[in-house]
Amino acid sequence: MGLTVRRRRWAALLGATALSVTVGGTLAVPAGAATAQSADVDFATHCVPPPIAGIPPIDGTSTANITVDNATPQVGDTVTVTYTMVKPAANNPTAIALPADIMTPTGKVTLGGAQTGDVTVTGPKKNDPVPGNGAFPSFSMTGTFTVTAPGAITLSPGDYNIHTSYILELDTPCTVITPPAPVSETVTATDGGQTNTRAIALGSASGAPGDSVTVNGSDFTPGATVTLAGRSGGTQTADTATVTADSSGAFSGSLVVTDRTTTGVVAYEGGAWDADKGAGPAAYVVVDDTPVPDGSQKLTTTVKAGTLSMSQAGDAVRLSAVDFGEGGASEGALQTVTVKDFRGGPAGWSLTGKVTDFTGPGAKIEAGRLSWNPACATKAGSPSTCRAGSSGSVGVSGATLASTPDGTATGGEFTVDAGLSLNVPAFTPPGSYAGVLTLTLT
Asked: For the chain, how many helices (H) and strands (E)?
């Protein structure tokens, strides 16, 4: 019996279950889970402190990491990118200690390979206190891009800016000295047959309430009326504007954003948002700079996004023995799999499995003879509802064990089970037979 672990990106965990059957004996199954990690990369950075600091530019090394929510998207899919600045090159440019939650980072992720361009990313106004002239703490920024071409797409950290709102509004922009920076993450896109290549880019990643943001679009229907709209999570806000695409399907317009809960901007054709005729959301942060009245205290908090993970109740399954000359169903139950989706956002998940042939004493039982009957339960309060896969053969090509759909609000905790049945041929030679069932969560 063995443990097979297949690596995937963040939001992809694997379980491998080795199945062994004994003709006239028993069947056992080991399993496990693992998370793949993207690479931390170092790159030379030129940071320019605010002029009021009176200090020269800082040339130093930034350390960053990029992760994605889907490392194997299809053309037309939206991929969420997280740019984590592990160690900024810049320090607090003043001798004044900075309090918590006054930093708003923004930046770019550079795409290369099958698809090129920049992804705008933004971070929440969230930080630990920073001592005077002390190092800026680590921070994360997120954004999205739509996959437009199949193949390997590389992601490298790009320029970033640290905005501080304390006494004065100050910016510390940092640029990559020799772009592009080293590749931190790679996604492999496949041609899913989707034809929507509409895309938008914002002129800025953040602004105060009431500021106007420029929205540039491409690959829309030539001459179409396009609606620009703010999004608050999965809900459209009252901030809208319309533009007309030119003869090439491109446009440039502006949207005034007043809703302080806005998290992104979309553009679409038709009377309502339609993912097949729209683009985005492109991440956008409304910087709430409303002054606190005398005698008041402004309270803020942050809800941190988690991960998609999978665990198993055990790593062995014993199937019932069958008799030589009779064969038949060798039955058992998959060890319970628990899926936790704490990512937030609109993406659902899919749990699939495939099995190898069962090898034994000079013979084998084909993988296609293993079938399952899946069941899935959703924990109360979960935004998503789990769907069990279809009963039938698992085989080497695999089948779906359970899934949840995409939606405006997703996430939760789920338990997945399955009855297992291996159809053993009547005169299979006596002995122990083993195969490996691998589960993949995406």
From this structure: 0, 32
